[in-house]
């Protein structure tokens, strides 16, 4: 198990960059005061990793939240993603500049290809490699790439992705994909760790929460970290943002980690990377 110590702890990417293993996701956080306050609350509480995307239409608010927080930009691990309609070599370079402008920054800590858009993602990756070599991004990666997408990308890539951000929760473990990423030095990262709220309906989670005297969200987020998976729970509620970070005063037993692994049923709550039409 990787060393998990505190809210500002990190996992090391394959290029030596330190990525905080817990972050704030802002999907569906409305641009303006909602996302600004969420980012400020998270950073002022000790978070150092903020994850947005061009598609979320809230990069401006994220940028304002960082500026208005008590934390310097260079101490924040800032992530955004290139959307499918922006993919392709030249389009991605333009999309990157547009994201930077909206975020009010001159570099990114991590830039991700949001989905494996067929016929485009290799050219998109070439653009990310160029931006990385120009030191405009500290790390580059992908999102929603299955093993065959990664294998295809690696046939032409000069740089192995540093991160693969996937839907990940007890109903969708995809251990084979985690193992493949680990073997290639690609850091696995979870989106939708709380199963879009369905995690709260599971009796097994209620039992574990009672056993450890923690919330269901804290149990599943701790499970992510103990599996070596970076995770970015989404919330715009200050109390939940603080609660989601209260993960460092307990540890799940190996048996309970395996118990959660055993819930796997290959069930998605989000789109299928092998079959999406956007």
TrEMBL record:
<dbReference type="InterPro" id="IPR023210">
    <property type="entry name" value="NADP_OxRdtase_dom"/>
</dbReference>
<protein>
    <submittedName>
        <fullName>Aldo/keto reductase</fullName>
    </submittedName>
</protein>
<feature type="domain" description="NADP-dependent oxidoreductase">
    <location>
        <begin position="32"/>
        <end position="264"/>
    </location>
</feature>
<dbReference type="InterPro" id="IPR018170">
    <property type="entry name" value="Aldo/ket_reductase_CS"/>
</dbReference>
<dbReference type="InterPro" id="IPR020471">
    <property type="entry name" value="AKR"/>
</dbReference>
<keyword id="KW-0560">Oxidoreductase</keyword>
<comment type="similarity">
    <text>Belongs to the aldo/keto reductase family.</text>
</comment>
<keyword id="KW-0521">NADP</keyword>
<dbReference type="InterPro" id="IPR044500">
    <property type="entry name" value="AKR5G"/>
</dbReference>
<dbReference type="Pfam" id="PF00248">
    <property type="entry name" value="Aldo_ket_red"/>
</dbReference>
<dbReference type="InterPro" id="IPR036812">
    <property type="entry name" value="NAD(P)_OxRdtase_dom_sf"/>
</dbReference>
């Amino acid at each position: 198990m990787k060393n998990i110590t505190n809210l500002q702890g990190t996992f090391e990417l394959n290029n030596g960059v330190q990525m905080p293993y817990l972050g704030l996701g802002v999907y569906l956080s409305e641009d303006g005061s909602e996302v600004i306050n969420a980012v400020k609350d998270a950073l002022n509480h000790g978070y150092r990793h903020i994850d947005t995307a061009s598609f979320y239409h809230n990069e401006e608010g994220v940028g304002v939240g960082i500026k208005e927080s008590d934390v310097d930009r260079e101490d924040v691990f800032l992530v955004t993603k290139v959307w499918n309609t922006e993919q392709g070599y030249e389009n991605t370079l333009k999309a990157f500049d547009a994201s930077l402008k909206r975020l009010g920054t001159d570099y990114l800590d991590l830039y991700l290809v949001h989905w494996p858009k067929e016929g485009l993602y290799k050219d998109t990756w070439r653009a990310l490699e160029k931006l990385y070599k120009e030191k405009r991004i500290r790390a580059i990666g992908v999102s929603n790439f299955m093993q065959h997408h990664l294998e295809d990308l690696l046939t032409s890539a000069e740089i192995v992705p540093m991160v693969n951000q996937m839907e990940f929760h007890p109903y969708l473990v995809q251990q084979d994909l985690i193992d493949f990423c680990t073997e290639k030095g690609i850091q696995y990262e979870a989106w939708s760790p709380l199963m879009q709220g369905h995690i709260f309906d599971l009796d097994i989670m209620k039992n574990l929460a009672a056993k450890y005297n923690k919330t269901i969200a804290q149990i599943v987020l701790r499970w992510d970290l103990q599996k070596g998976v970076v995770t970015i729970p989404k919330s715009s509620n200050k109390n939940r943002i603080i609660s989601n970070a209260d993960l460092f005063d307990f540890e799940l037993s190996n048996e309970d980690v395996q118990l959660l692994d055993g819930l796997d049923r290959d069930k998605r709550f989000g789109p299928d990377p092998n079959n999406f039409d956007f």
